[in-house]
Fold each of these.
Amino acid sequence: MNLQRILWIAVFAIIMMESSGQKTHKSVLLQHDKKIDAIIQQMTLEEKVEMLHGKTMFASAGVERLGIADVKYADGPFGIREELQPHSWAPLGLTTDKATFFPTGSALAATWSPELAYEYGTGMAREARMRGKDMILGPAINIQRIPTGGRTYEYLSEDPFLSSRLSVGYTKGVQENEAAVCLKHYALNNQENNRGTVNVIIGERAMREIYLPPFRAAVEEADAFGVMAAYNKVNDRWCSENDILQNKILRDEWGFAGMIISDWGGTHSTVDAVTYGLNVEMPDKKYLGQALLDSVKAGKVSEEIINLRVREILRVRMEIKPVPEEKANKEITSQPAQQKIAYNVASKSIVLLKNNGILPIDISKKPVIAVIGANATQIMATGGLGAGVKTLYEVTPLEGLKNKIGDKAEIVFAQGYVPVVFTWGRKSPEQLEKEAREKEIKTKELTKEAMDVASKADLVLFIGGNNRSVETEGSDRKDIKLPSGQDELIQKIAEVNKNIVTVLTSGAPNDLNVVNSISKALLISWFNGTEGGNALADVLLGNISPSGRLPFTLPVKLEDSPAYALGNYPQGNKNADVFANLVSETDSIGVTAEKKSEALNRDPNTANYSEESLVGYRWFDTKKLPVMYPFGYGLTYTDFNYSALKTDSEKYGKNDIIRVSFELKNTGKMAADEVVQVYIHRINPSVEWPEKELKAFSRETLNPGESKTLTLEIPVKNLQYWNETKHAWDDDLCNIELQVGASAGDIKFKKEVALK
Ligand code: BGC
């Protein structure tokens, strides 16, 4: 480590200590403290320590003697996970634990609807309670930093403001319905490769402005009761023993009064973990069991610290009433009310990227529709590594189409390609070779069948994309190409039928160069939950208008995205071939060859966030790089007109609220939702800023011909930056341009106002 970095980290730590104590929020959990004093007095040291580690895979202990129930956890974030054996990942085999599979994070984010996020939280909480759970391990709110990130599908967005609004909605929905959230993964868990060893090196400003806001908002605005410490290190300290993140920022600054649990197996020490803020080691007791007891007895940890950690757990325990044993798991978890929420979210999440008029599908003449692609029948509730949902049902795209079309058209299905299937363990070279040969033969057969089916159809619905084996916890994708040779297949199909509508059921960005040019219409339909297929069919048939908007940028090519362009990701020699390509690819945007060769030699366990705040569209817009489709983008089956932009003043003080008003009119023939977005651009700032930043948005439903006057509010306080010299939020009172539009790439009008 170089001297400058050591100094920086030391200064940061000192300043953080000084700035502690000014909490921005007062939690309802604090009301239990008096009662807790009395409980703690009655507890033995052994009983206290017993609460600080896993009792089973998904529970930590209460104190039976004092009538304090265990805390029961459930994954999260997109459905209540099935019941597992107490001490292994093997299923318990209940018949009642079939839950609703809710659309995953990026789908929820594509609704751009905090109200739907609230509904979603409500549904998750109801099902958690039916299963006797206290705390849901979600929402997952890390920023989507790299397009290849293995958990992009679980996370919400590349943008901190959108992520924050949704994490607040989700948290309120859960906590107003008798369960607690556990915000994960705190913090900076933005990659899956090496997630258990990687050290994120990040400056204060990017951390405060980009990566922490969704956590801060859920704590300050929704009083989140639980947080999960991430696997990685941040600035040289493991997250689960990171004093700055856990004690100074989360507790002292934001006023978090609840409990922090480790990610599973993510605890690394005894004294440091408990001192620097961790409450529960999950799911084991390697560090916070006997070792902790010994440390207290040896005087290495004071009993006050233990009392404090116990208190933080008891606050949550007292606020969240345990579900009586005899009431849990009595009925099937998934119920119609929650399935309806899953449908509502799915139906508002589907993003229409391109349409030359071929959609909605006209079935008046009973067409032959060739549905081609393994994703048409692919289940997305499970697959890959990590939490899945043992769903009561999942309507696939093909089933949805059949449900909604009935006999009004002829549907012919062809699988088209061999989907990726996640398997455990390493395979021998012989085995791999054999599988490759078999796959080649199968692919030829499937291609032939697909072309045959396509040639006889009026319309081809190509349903491709990733699946849960491709996008998975524990590893990132190598690239963003459509898997299983889908680009090659669609090119073949186009030789025999040009009427192609492409639907990608992916949770993360794909390279769209081929499908976008070949398809007459293109949609993203996500890992869209129990009702995903029905929602998709309703959109394709025009029963409803598409109304999702991209929660992330779709780059022209992966190498344009910031962490790749700067050689910050992937890290280390292992990826030398990827870097070799980057050297030639990124010269045009001023990334120096030295930077890249430095990256080449870097430790694979160091993730340098030198792109700072330039994440997602902030990077593309600032660097003036073309994108495939911009952040916030999505078409409908109607047209909207924006007019008469006004602000309530020309000048605003630092405590004022900017009110931006304009008229929105549905000028087309169909009811639809528009997501209006307000970005701000700084004109004469005193510090550096990205080209533009999202600061307000609203989803509006308008009937044909209807117009509305909308007013969106931006508190000037929300335009502050993190001053790295003062280690505090600060104003940059300059002239700004308000940019109102339908996406980051479609600004309808701009207006300059002054901040003073
Ligand atoms: C994941 C968490 C999850 C936990 C328990 C970990 O591997 O990172 O998100 O909640 O396992 O399943």
Amino acid sequence: MQLVFATNNLNKLTEVQRLIPSHIKLLSLKDIGCEVDIPETQNTIEGNAIQKAEHIKTKYGYDCFADDTGLEVEALNGEPGVFSARYAGEQRHAEDNMNLLLDNLHKKTNRNAQFKTVIALHLNNDLKTFTGICKGEITQEKHGDKGFGYDPIFKAEGYTKTFAEIALEEKNKVSHRGKAIQQLVAFLSNY
Ligand code: IMP
């Protein structure tokens, strides 16, 4: 059985391939000849994940799953949310995004935030979604140089270090994406 993971991130692909049953072969976007950006024009994280999975099914005919992630900050009414990648502009620059977020939270005492990942799976004409949430808080300053995106300013609940200061294996155990992937893997394993 073949299943497209709508990503060009080979690290993500290898990681998920290791976890799912071996009779399911994952294909990347490149493998199916999709070299253009897939539209992500919805105003929710769920909407974008579903849009990407449906795009691949409709245009390329493959069963597929796609993920979308956002950081939701309580004191900013859930921003940057679906706009996390381009919070500080279309250049999608992680440093700019973090600086803007820290500025917008300046002097705010409520630093609660959560990462949310939604995976949409299009399989045998059925659509299913899996949601992973990681609660935590935004730090006052950046710490650490591991990871990507907002990792240097996000501390998961129960941790004294940011995601950019802990090992990837540790992050995967508690992260939004890790939790969503665990649900997907459990579903595919029982399929
Ligand atoms: P994507 O949907 O996985 O592309 O994530 C959208 C944006 O959310 C990324 O560009 C990052 O800015 C941010 N993001 C997603 N996952 C993480 C994470 O695990 N750590 C830090 N930032 C993340």
